[in-house]
Amino acid sequence: MRIAIIDDEKGILLSLSIFLEMEGHVPITFSSPYEALEKIPYKNLDLIILDMRMPEMNGEQVAQILKKDPKTKNIPLILFSAHETLPEVAARVGAEGILEKPFKFSKLEALIHNFQKNKYA
Fold this sequence. Notes:
CATH architecture: 3-Layer(aba) Sandwich
Strand content: 15-25%
Number of strands: 5
Strand order of the largest sheet: 2-1-3-4-5
Shape: globular
CATH topology: Rossmann fold
Number of helices: 5
């Protein structure tokens, strides 16, 4: 699967990229939400993993834009954060999954597997 990761923390981008590559996926990373919004519509993605707390624009704003754009609205979206309102935000923006920080890679793997299974069902 081609999976975009949007997070301003370089360490998280790197660790998620390494994990996804090891699992056979193609990670595409963005440290800027503005860059992500500009490029994601042209990347032919299967999934987007989006951090909720970023300095330039918060994840809820990014998710709303992605879900309104006809080119990206059908790409499954996983929100991740340590914020306790994550489930409410996910419901509000129409995200298909959540991942609470700190997260276990096994939980992420299970989420990705479910999306992969549904895509090819």
